[in-house]
Structures are given as structure tokens and as C-alpha cells.
Design a protein that fits this description.
This protein has 374 residues and is α/β, with parallel strands linked by helices. It has 13 helices and 13 strands. It has 2 domains: 7-122 and 365-371, Enolase-like, N-terminal domain (Enolase-like, domain 1, 2-Layer Sandwich), CATH 3.30.390.10; 128-352, TIM Barrel, CATH 3.20.20. Bound molecules: magnesium ion.
Length: 374
């Protein structure tokens, strides 16, 4: 019997890339995006790539880029090195049993394993996950310059160039009335040519949410993302029941267990799927299955990853039969520079699912050397 192929080395690399403009969210303003890139080398010479990128340091989640790197380098890599590469489920069980939380780090390693296996077998990652049902997916753009006129101009440009016609507005850092004015002005300017959605990133109290959602629904907004604190499941359920406009859980729903709780409580109409939140590609599909069983809509979310993490999400989301709210996989487009040799195929309001082996993307070593943190 042939000796099993083993993992030889794992490296987590911090990469700081400038954004095309300041990106204003309710909790922070981003001017650079820090990617955490994982390189997983196997003894047969195959290397897999993964990404564990978060939004605004510690402002979105409990894992910072530096902590993710430490979790990988100091804890997960020693656990996985010398481990055979024949079963991603064995690798996942090993990580889950030895490490609490740290879903971003585990997700990047599972992705890197799948990329390596795909390259080894000559198959795209989506094929390893059962096969793609979509070759292209729609992509929303986030208008978050902080300025109404600038956001309208940006949206008009996106429409004209056939880049995006789904727009998400990041709100919650101003008074509810100011946010409503901002969103309504943008929706009015774009009219029926575009769909406008909002992400409050947990910023509102329940009372503010009632006031805000009522006005936004009247203005023609189609989706309200995470209006209240992630832990306020009952408040989310009351808001979902009270309004016709769809309410989406993002920070409230990470993995299948969260999804089960929200579904049982009728707390949301839509779930935002994100690989790192769930703890990896397989866990994301488990959450999607809960949503499908419960009749909850699906949306392909982003942690504003670069091309590697975005490609991983594309492969996973392409296997879902129904993704009725589309995706927001625009992360690479927010960055001025990239660290891959060939970017994703963005065109006609969407993006193509890569077709090459594994993730279907290759590192540009020169760019990586230039932007990696020293
Ligand atoms: Mg969100």
C-alpha cells in the first residue's frame, strides 16, 4: 500500500493592501484591508491556498488578523503537520476537537486543504463539494463612502459599466433619521434601475429599528441586514414578524447550530453565509442546508476577502441550488492591488466561478513579497 501523503508545512502571512477609497461601516472606517493568507504545503509538492480575512481589525469579530495568524502558526499548524491529507473531514474533526472557536483560522486551513486536493486531482473545488450548479453569480456592491452624492455617482458608474445593480448601504453610525434620508435619496436617484439594501451591523436598538425599518420599507429598500445586536434573537424575530421587508441575519448566524436556533425562533427571513463565520466550506454548506429546510433565503456574504477567499466562497456558493439574494463577493474590487496573477472574471453584474483545479487562482509571488507585513 502506498504511503499516505502528509502535510509538510503551513504558513500564515499577513498582507496589507490599500482600498480604493475609505470604506465606512457603522463600527469602523477601513483604509487598508489586511488579508491573512495560508500556504499549506504537502509532501507530494502540492501547495494549497486559503484566506482568513476579517473586517476592520477587531471591529467585526473576535478574531483579529494577528490573532488568526497566531492561532494558525502556534496552535493549528503543529497539530496538522505530518497529518495525512486523505480526509478533509478528519482534518476538520482534529481542528474542532483541539481548538475552540477560531473559525476564521480553521476555515482558511480547510480551504487550503481543499485547494491542494483539487490541484492534486485536477478538479475545481466546487466539484470536490459535489459540483457547481451555477457558472456565474450576481454580485452586489457596497456604497460606503459616507457621502450621499458620492455614493449616487458611484452607483451610476456601476450601472453604466454593467458592474453592479444590487447595492448595499452601510448605515447605523448616524441618527436613524439621517441614515433614512441618505438611503432614501440614493434609492430615489436610482429608481427601478437598481435594488437597494441596507446593513446596520447591529447598530440599532429595537426601538430605533422599528422606526428605521418602517421608513426604509416605505422608501423601497428590499433587505434589512442585522438591524440589532447579534445576541438579540427575540428582537430580531419581532422585527421579522412586524415588517414585510426581508430581515437578514449576519452577525447572529455563524454556523448550523446558530441557524437552527434562528429558524426555530422564526427570527430571520434570510441568512448571510460566510465561510469564515461558519468555520469553513463544509460548515457553510451545513448552515445552508438548515436554511433550505426551514424555508429561509440565502445570501452569499463576504468578509471583504481578496481573490483567494472570494474564489473559495464562489466555489461553495456555486453548489447551492437557491441563492435568491445573490452575493456580495466584491472584495477584490475594493482593493487597489492584488496578490494573485490573474483576477476573477467580473462582468455583466456578476462574477464567474473559477474553473481551474482547486480554487483556480495562483499567487503572484512578487506582489506577495511587496505587500506582506514585515
Ligand atoms: Mg453584514
Amino acid at each position: 500500500m502506498a504511503m499516505p501523503i502528509r502535510i509538510e508545512a503551513i504558513e500564515a502571512i499577513l498582507v496589507d493592501l490599500p482600498t480604493i477609497r475609505p470604506h465606512r461601516l457603522s463600527m469602523t472606517t477601513m483604509r487598508i484591508q489586511t488579508l491573512v493568507i495560508v500556504r499549506l504545503r504537502c509532501l507530494d509538492g502540492v501547495e494549497g491556498l486559503g484566506e482568513a480575512t476579517t473586517i476592520g481589525g477587531l471591529s467585526y469579530g473576535a478574531e483579529s488578523p494577528e490573532a488568526i495568524k497566531s492561532a494558525i502558526d502556534d496552535y493549528l499548524a503543529p497539530l496538522l503537520i505530518e497529518h495525512p491529507v486523505d480526509s478533509v473531514r478528519a482534518l476538520r474533526a482534529l481542528m474542532r476537537n483541539a481548538v475552540r472557536g477560531n473559525g476564521f483560522a480553521r476555515s482558511a486551513l480547510e480551504t487550503a486543504w481543499l485547494d491542494a486536493q483539487g490541484k492534486r486531482l485536477g478538479l475545481p473545488l466546487s466539484t470536490l463539494l459535489g459540483g457547481a450548479l451555477h457558472q456565474r453569480l450576481p454580485v452586489a456592491w457596497t456604497l460606503a463612502s459616507g457621502d450621499t452624492e458620492r455614493d449616487i455617482a458611484e452607483a451610476e458608474q456601476c450601472l453604466e459599466q454593467h458592474r453592479h445593480r444590487l447595492f448595499k448601504l452601510k448605515i447605523g453610525s448616524h441618527d436613524v433619521a439621517d441614515d433614512v434620508r441618505h438611503v432614501s435619496a440614493i434609492k430615489q436617484a436610482l429608481g427601478e434601475r437598481a435594488e437597494v439594501r441596507v446593513d446596520v451591523n447591529q447598530a440599532w436598538s429595537e426601538a430605533q429599528a422599528v422606526q428605521g425599518i418602517r421608513a426604509l420599507e416605505a422608501a423601497g429598500v428590499t433587505l434589512i441586514e442585522q438591524p440589532v445586536d447579534a445576541r438579540l434573537r427575540d428582537a430580531l424575530a419581532r422585527l421579522s414578524a412586524r415588517f414585510d421587508v426581508a430581515v437578514m441575519a449576519d452577525e447572529s448566524v455563524c454556523d448550523a447550530r446558530d441557524g437552527f436556533g434562528l429558524a426555530a425562533a422564526h427570527a430571520a427571513d434570510v441568512f448571510a453565509l460566510k465561510l469564515p463565520k461558519a468555520g469553513g466550506p463544509l460548515a457553510t454548506l451545513e448552515l445552508a442546508a438548515i436554511a433550505e429546510a426551514a424555508g429561509i433565503g440565502l445570501y452569499g456574504g463576504t468578509m471583504l476577502e481578496g481573490t483567494i477567499g472570494t474564489a473559495a466562497s464562489l466555489h461553495v456558493f456555486s453548489t447551492l441550488e437557491r441563492l435568491e439574494w445573490g452575493t456580495e463577493l466584491f472584495g477584490p474590487r475594493l482593493l487597489v492591488e492584488d496578490i494573485v496573477s490573474c483576477g476573477l472574471d467580473y462582468a455583466e453584474f456578476g462574477v464567474g466561478v473559477p474553473t481551474g483545479p482547486g480554487l483556480g487562482v495562483e499567487l503572484d509571488e512578487t506582489q506577495l513579497a511587496r505587500y506582506r507585513r514585515r
